[in-house]
Amino acid sequence: MARIIVISDPHLSPTHGFFWDNWCRACEMVNRLAPDAVIVTGDLCINGPDSDAEVAFARQALGRLKPPVHALPGNHDVGDEPPGQAADQIVDADRLRRWQSVFGSDRFAFDADGWRVLGINAQLLGSGLPQEDEQDAWLDGELGAAARPVLLALHKPLFLQSADEREVTARSINPEPRARLLRRLQGAPVRAVISGHLHCHRDVVRDGLRHVWAPSTAFLVQEPVDATADNVLGILSVEVGNDGVRVELVDVPGLVPHDLAELKGHGRYKYLRDMPVCPPA
Ligand SMILES: [Fe+2]
Ligand SMILES: [Fe+2]
User: How many domains does the chain have?
Assistant: First the structure.
């Protein structure tokens, strides 16, 4: 059996340090658990799409983790896939280049006790960028070669409630790229998809595939997108082996459950990046 810890949405910044203490506590917990690997499912930054310093800071912060770390970008790192939440922060070549120059790659593949663990850049899905085609070809290669069970990680969930929902929303992968991704996954031994982005925890099976939402370590949103989701902070323990996959929510003692709306002064600031500078203590 191999144990992987999933951390999501830490939202770190050298200028806006609201969630730095939570990050340090999460790292302490992960190092105590000493898993075989750590996956970070995106949104390492607050304003990564427009800040070299922020992406570099997030990379440096990963140095607190002792196990091998595999980080994926989210919309707060390389920008949203279109149409996105903000027209001025759509994923593009420069933003991808910034991430690549600091993190080396925006996807990964590794073996874990008879499983193949894959991570992809969700922000490319539906972007229309050449990097999307390149990633698709890479994923097809991995899935085609996969004789072993596969765990797939990415920042955004494939959908909120069901694969056939038609809403175009920044909360999940959009309908067309979702359908393309699901076609790729069909026929391959993909057992579970783990995503971040929604800042809550849910673990459901849809059409025979398990979809797990990893909670954030940073903040809660007042109204989770699904009433059945757990509105909590924390990390996930994912154990894979001959017996399948076991996912468990791990409470991290001392995490402060920051509320996003309250932090932003209930409408006073549109985005965290607009707020007065308050570096990590
Ligand atoms: Fe996030
Ligand atoms: Fe996100």
Answer: 1
133 CA distance to ligand 2 middle (Å): 22
Q: Which of 275, 241, 271 is nearest to 84 (CA)?
A: 271
Average pLDDT rounded to a whole number, residues 56-63: 98
Q: How far is the CA of 166 from the centre of ligand 1 (A)?
A: 23
Each residue's pLDDT tens digit, 79-98: 999 999 999 999 999 999 99
Range of the domain at 127: 2-274
Summarised one tens digit per residue, pLDDT across range 1-34 is 999 999 999 999 999 999 999 999 999 999 999 9
Q: Tell me whether residue 142 is in a domain.
A: yes
Question: What digits encode the pLDDT tens for the residues 147-170?
Answer: 899 999 999 999 999 999 999 999
Nearest-angstrom CA–CA distance, 167 and 228: 20
Q: Where are the beta strands (DSSP E) in 49-184?
A: 69-72, 108-112, 115-119, 150-154
Q: Ligand 2 mean position to 56 CA, how many Å? A: 18
Q: The CATH number of the domain where 26 resides is what?
A: 3.60.21.10
Task: Report which DSSP code applies to 274.
Answer: G
HEC string of 200-245 equals CEEEEEECCEEEEECCECCEECCCCCCCCCECCCCEEEEEEECCEE
